[in-house]
Design a protein that fits this description.
Blueprint: H1 5-10, E1 24-29, E2 43-44, E3 49-55, E4 58-65, E5 69-73, E6 82-90, E7 96-102, E8 115-120, E9 128-129, E10 139-140, E11 146-150, E12 155-156, E13 167-171, E14 176-182, E15 193-198, E16 206-213, E17 217-221, E18 225-226, E19 231-236, E20 242-251, E21 263-269, E22 275-282, E23 301-307, E24 313-318, E25 328-333, E26 344-347, E27 351-357, E28 363-368, E29 372-377, E30 389-390, H2 397-401, E31 414-419, E32 422-433, E33 439-452
Parallel strand pairs: 1-3, 2-30, 16-22
Antiparallel strand pairs: 3-4, 4-33, 5-33, 6-7, 7-8, 8-9, 10-11, 11-15, 12-18, 13-14, 14-17, 15-16, 17-20, 19-20, 20-21, 21-22, 23-24, 24-25, 25-26, 27-28, 28-29, 29-30, 31-32, 32-33
Length: about 450
């Protein structure tokens, strides 16, 4: 591995040091495929930065990171869950809306819709905080509707007539037991999936319930509550059908038992989201060679799903859980998500990866924990990536990996294209210093321009 002198001068502080004063550099990346995935391989890009990125002797990218723009700042110190988990989306009228969580990160808070919001009318340059009915993360359908996954409030177990469980599992964070039930045997109120839909030409989002057909799927109860959790990405395939890559995916095996380790499940709709049937799955696989703590993981979660220009389906999966920060895995499908390649480690750590393919062919991935990272790729299978560009300094990798006080962000991000070669990334900054000198949580956005050489 070789790093040019100019790069060394620019990034001498590494991932953890003070923000460098220089604003341009050349990155020479001579790694072999799969080499140099360590957490300390990141490149600081905290402020306005221009980078010429070379891979194995050839120019790969010209990247311009613009200065972060502060969308909102917490008025007081906030606990975990509050003023974090942001997303960003374009509304039907062309404005951009940002949203972030203002409640606990807990099953009891599902469906409360307690979020902050801000709107930009100048492509993210300035923002004003105001309520917005736009749910965020909506997909534009072939019929002109907009569709967004919705999570309703969980129902207490005591208010339901539940079938016999088909498995149990320990939830590492709360030290509570999951009880698993076959989806098709649950009460009608706990079957299906919920969406918010903005019909073409309409001005009001409507809540609706769709049919979900999957005889091998299980759902869970936790802490005396039965939620409907169906989170992930939806994309329009070349044939006009909708493909959803979601989690958690719990599978009932041939013996009628449920594996407590989750996987990523894929569903297809041919009627604009009213009915969904199972398309394929990525079940969790032990990987002691790629992850020494593989046997302790709770499975694959938070899949990022993208359909590449040639029709390849790409999925990046999180493995972080009570065993600590785990690697992220990549898998791809060439048959519209019916079968998937064996997942392989593509980053050493990360939560909630996000994927975006720009129309110029560059593939973008954001993730976090520790910190917040951006990576770029032109690999047609999405398995080989640039080194990580760090959006925030994180001073103590070991402490942050164990969930300690060094955490500088929730690590959850959002990506929104703003042109053929540019996009916005949104993220939280837990160590933002206000003009009064206090430290508060903040929501930030920045524009990035990346040109393929």
């Amino acid at each position: 591995m070789r790093i040019s002198l100019m790069l060394f001068l620019f990034f001498a502080a590494g991932v953890c040091g003070a923000q460098p004063s220089s604003k341009s550099a050349v990155v020479v990346d001579d790694r072999s495929p799969g080499e140099g995935r360590g957490l300390k391989d990141g490149i600081a890009a905290y402020g306005a930065t221009t980078v010429q990125y070379k891979q194995r002797g050839k120019k790969a990218f010209d990247i311009r990171f613009k200065d972060p723009v502060v969308i909102a700042v917490a008025a007081r110190p906030e606990k975990w869950g509050f003023f974090q988990f942001p997303n960003i989306d374009r509304t039907a009228n062309g404005n951009i809306v940002a949203k972030w969580n203002l409640t606990r990160d807990a099953i009891e808070a599902y469906g409360t819709d307690t979020r902050g919001s801000a709107v930009s009318t100048d492509v993210g340059k300035s923002w004003r905080e105001e309520p917005s009915e736009d749910p965020g993360n909506a997909v534009l359908l072939p019929n002109g509707d907009r569709l967004a996954i919705y999570t309703p409030k969980p129902i207490p177990e005591k208010e339901l007539q539940l079938p016999a469980p088909v498995g149990v599992g320990l939830e590492n964070y709360r030290k509570s037991n999951f009880n698993f039930y076959r989806l098709s045997e649950l009460p009608e109120s706990r079957q299906g999936v919920y969406f918010k839909r903005l019909k073409k030409g309409a001005s009001k989002w409507e809540l609706e319930k769709a049919v979900l057909e999957d005889p091998q799927a299980a759902r869970y109860s936790l802490a005396g509550l039965v939620p409907i959790v169906w989170w992930g990405d939806i994309h329009v395939a070349k044939d006009g059908s909708l493909i959803a890559g979601i989690y958690p995916g719990y599978l009932v095996d041939k013996d009628g038992k449920t594996d407590p380790r989750s996987g990523a499940f894929f569903y297809r709709s041919t009627d604009n989201g009213h009915h969904w049937s199972v398309q394929g799955r990525i079940p969790f696989q032990l990987d002691p060679a790629g992850d020494t703590l593989s046997a302790r993981r709770m499975g694959y979660t938070e899949p990022a799903f993208e359909i590449l220009k040639d029709g390849t389906f790409l999925c990046v999966l999180r493995t972080t859980d009570g065993a600590g920060i785990g690697p992220m895995y990549g898998s791809y499908s060439t048959d519209q998500g019916k079968t998937w390649s064996v997942p392989q480690v593509i980053t050493p750590a990360g939560v909630l990866p996000r994927l975006l393919q720009l129309s110029n062919g560059v593939l973008v991935m954001s993730s976090g924990r520790p910190g917040v990272q951006l990576r770029f790729s032109t690999d047609p299978r999405g398995m080989q990536w640039s080194r990580a560009f760090e959006m925030l300094p994180h001073d103590d990798v070991k402490k942050e990996l164990s969930g300690g006080s060094a955490q500088v962000s929730c690590g959850y991000t959002g990506l929104l294209p703003t042109g053929s070669n540019k996009f916005l990334i949104i993220y939280s900054d837990f160590h933002y210093q206000t003009s009064e000198g206090t430290i508060r949580k903040a929501i930030k956005v920045r524009e990035v321009v990346v040109k393929k050489k």
